[in-house]
Amino acid sequence: MRNAGAGRSVPMAEKLWRGSVALTLAGLLGAGAIVASSASATSGVAIAAPTRVTAGELTRSATLERVFVNGGEESVVDTREVTVSLSHNDELRGRERVRVHWSGARPSGARAADPYGENGLSQEYPVVVLQCRGVDDASLPADQQLRPETCWTSTRQQRSLTSVERTAVWRHDLYADEVDRAEKSGRAPFPSEECADPAGYSSRLTPFAAATGKEYLACTAETMPPEAAVGAAYPPAEVAGFTDSSGRGSVNFEVRSDVENESLGCSSSVACSIVVIPIMGISCLDDDRECRRQGKWLPGSSNFSKQGIDLAVSPQLWWSESNWRNRFAFPISFGLPADTCDIQDSRAPVGFYGSELLSQAALQWSPAYCLDEKRFKFQHNRMPDEAGFKLMETGDGAAALVSGRRETSGTDPVGYAPTAITGFAIGYAVDRPDNAGEYPNLRLNARLLAKLLTQSYLGSDLGRGHPGMGKNPLSINLDPEFQELNPGLDLTAREAGATLLSLSESSDVIESVTSYIQADPEAKAFVEGKADKWGMVVNPSYKSIPLPTREWPLLDEYVPASEQECLQQNPSPYFTQLAAPVSTLRKVAESVLDAWPNVQTRCERSTVNDPWKLGRVDRQGLGTRFVLGIVTLGDAERFGLRKAALQTKRGRYVVPSDRSIAAAIKISKQAKRMEPFELKQAAVRKDGGAYPGTMVVYTAARTSGADKATSKTVAQFIRISSTEGQRPGRGNGQLPAGYLPIKKTGVTARLYRSAQEVADAVEAQKTAKSPDEKSEPDNPGNDGMPDSRPEQVEDPSVADPPDEATTEAPVEATTTTASSDVATPDASSNLARVALPLALGLALLGGFLSTGIRVLVRVRRLR
Questions:
Q1: Longest alpha-carbon distance in the chain
Q2: H helices present in 674-821, as ranges
């Protein structure tokens, strides 16, 4: 019989239905409810609704057993009460990480150095985590159901097997049918021409069924899907996770959409699942010795050299009925793809140009605009903040997205509307020695960042000849200052540990990072040439570089002498090859995610007769990772990256969180009305609990001299983004993790009011008031002034962060905002059409009421 709870039918509320629905946005009514809109779309073209799943099904439990048959009687030889949980499963994006945790599983043995893909096969009793197309619901059509053939693996070794009869343990599976116990199984007739079929051997195939309907036999490299090719763009995501002696374990599982894996085909309209299979071992129908093996490795042991294991308890047989029946299948849903607006809305887009800090929010916001006929087609175009501002000034862009004030080149005044509170982080992938897992609480100070940016670590022996710094450490993990803050890491010199992956172009993020360095006396002194107490000095090429700066230059021109033919054929500045900055912060995040440094020092050539060339070094293996990079908080949250705690004052290290970001906003100052709120790093250091990487993205637009139609559109964006766009959640129009909501009350109230004021000024396009007018008081609470604007409807599930943000010791960095499944309001709904005249009537009535009585309504602007 099937184990209770494992792989059971999915409740009806969980079914990932398809079909035509309107392009108006769906909403959630009550916790876990699923509501779909059926109104007609602007373009008249229907698309499948984004599937939703209930949060109540994120944890499941089951009793798992291994059974041997003795003399016709079944005997339970192992039983486990296993619980599996997911951190989230709805509105996912490609390459997003989902935390999978389990307890009660059998402890694993023969731990692999790298549990991903085929590297994880040489383990005993792991927990296999896969992404599969379909859901576990027998009532659905066959092509929508989950089965081993729709589960993705990166190699043939994970799904096809040929063995001598003695070790073909799957042929003794108690729960397999006679067809699957045959000498050749998995496909009938067996494809002997395409797949190895040696006489006297047992062979098993688990073909892969692609979303296109094509079958891949998956028995050779040539018969695997294209995404499984050697050197594929993305590393394996499927994992054989290790269970500790207490029965617990966890992995950060990376999901792939049809953008990353077209053959798997998961999307907003194609239902998929995360499948978790605790390996219990083959249940045996007879007394076959190999089938009954229970492992040769002790729990907790390591098998870094991939020595032999007992196949009966290995992850290689995840597809066998004994293991497959123990699966925990969690339906997942994907958000609308990034090109939804281009496909579904034929209107010309209105371009907003600038900061990459807004990218993750814009990804969720865009459909809330283009799929509503009452709004416009919003398009976020990432580019340097300065370039975006220039486009706005010249009228070539509707508005700019920046994080600081700019000098205008003309006479038209510019207003800065707070649009998103977020920031940067130092993302990292750093492993502890002896395969002990990721380093959880990395701490960095401004001087260490200065050392990395100024290329003051030598990288390798090639850097030892650099004039003026030949005695510096090779990499940051060999720096005594770093070791004091982060004890217990290895002492292996590595080029990737000599650099901080950063941007190659101008950005307000770089200005914020370098402002943090400049405000720290020790970091500033180091850049100016003062050695630290261990004798490390700044790279002479960067000595006294002016800070802060929006663009970090590559100044070092040192070319090392070498006897290597490759380096002689490719003479180039060594430290530039180590730094190798990239054009977007998204690329930095992906480099950290993949543990693939962008260091360009690998010598390679196709044949011995070809010239040498320099290229990117290999990805780092699990257990030996050491990558640091500047990332956005939005990307860090989306991809599940760890974030370093940054020093504020001596002994204080602060991680990015709602609390620490709110503390930074509280101490920010607005010099003049409708201008940015400046966060000075000196104030951050004094406060101690504020996060130094906090930044605000502003919608910058002209308040005079701009086109009326464009100005009206920009004003609409400001009002929507600063109200409903601030509702935390994973759905369309909502605010993703990595952003602090702007609210009408609390520490962000000043930013909310400033956004509304700028929106009014942009729409009015009148001559600006004197720029010498003082800004509103810096008190983040109620300033006692009457508010003439309609009151914002607050989401009661979103609480204000505490007023203080003190972090004495670093904990795992989080910037997740309060969870909310409140859907984006539909401006074209019947409710909106009724609410507008009603609100206007109430407002008129309110004018005749006595002073002090306010009408609490929210006027929804439809245009």
A1: 97
A2: 681-687, 708-721, 749-764
What six digits make up the tokens of 358?
């807004």
∠773-777-782 over CA atoms, to 5°? 135
Distances (CA, A) of 80 to 174, 279, 299, 317, 530: 18, 11, 15, 19, 61
**DSSP letters of 421-485?**
EEEEEEEEEEBPTTT--B----EE-HHHHHHHHTT-S--SGGGTT-TT-TTS-SSGGG-HHHHHH
* Amino acid at residue number 720: I
Over the stretch 146-201, which tens digit does the pLDDT of each residue have? 999 999 999 999 999 999 999 999 999 999 999 999 999 999 999 999 998 888 89
CB 731 within 8 A of CB 823: yes
132/358 Cα distance (integer angstroms): 31
Residues whose CB is less than 8 angstroms from the CB of residue 322 and which lie 6 or more positions away in sequence, other chains included = 66, 173, 174, 175, 176, 280, 281, 282, 283
Q: Is the dihedral of CA 122, 125, 131, 133 positive or negative?
A: positive
Distance CA 29, CA 36 (A): 10
Torsion angle, alpha carbons of 768, 774, 775, 781, to 10: -150
User: Which one-letter DSSP state was computed for residue 223?
Assistant: G
Confidence bin at 232 (pLDDT 50/70/90): confident
Closest C-alpha to 699, from 709, 691, 710, 689: 710
Least Cα distance to 509 among 693, 700, 663 occurs for: 693
Helix (H) / strand (E) element for 578: namely helix 574-579
Query: Which contacts qualify for 596-599: CB closer than 8 Å, 24 or more apart?
Result: 596/620, 596/627, 597/495, 597/496, 597/499, 597/501, 597/627, 598/501, 599/495, 599/496, 599/499
Half-sphere exposure of 126 (CA within 13 A, CB side): 33
Whether the CB-CB separation of 747 and 666 falls below 8 Å is answered with: yes
Measured in residues, the chain has a length of: 863
User: How many other CB atoms are there within 10 angstroms of residue 611's CB atom?
Assistant: 10
CA distance 578 to 523: 22
For 491, the token pair is 């002492």
Q: What is the DSSP letter of 151?
A: B
First to last CA, the chain: 60
Torsion of CA 503, 505, 508, 512, to 10 degrees: 40
* pTM of the entire predicted model: 0.82
- Give the position of tokens 């949060």: 55
Query: Of 697, 692, 687, 631, whose CA–CA distance to 656 is shortest?
Result: 692
Q: Is 63 helix (H, G, I), strand (E, B) or coil?
A: strand
Question: What interhelical angle do 508-519 and 446-453 show, nearest 10?
Answer: 120
Q: Which residues contact 770 (CB under 8 A, 6 or more apart)?
A: none
pLDDT at 659 over 70: yes
- Both tokens of residue 847? 């004018």
- Compute the C-alpha angle 840/841/844, nearest 5°: 85
Judged on CB neighbours under 10 Å (0-12, 13-18, 19+), 511 is buried
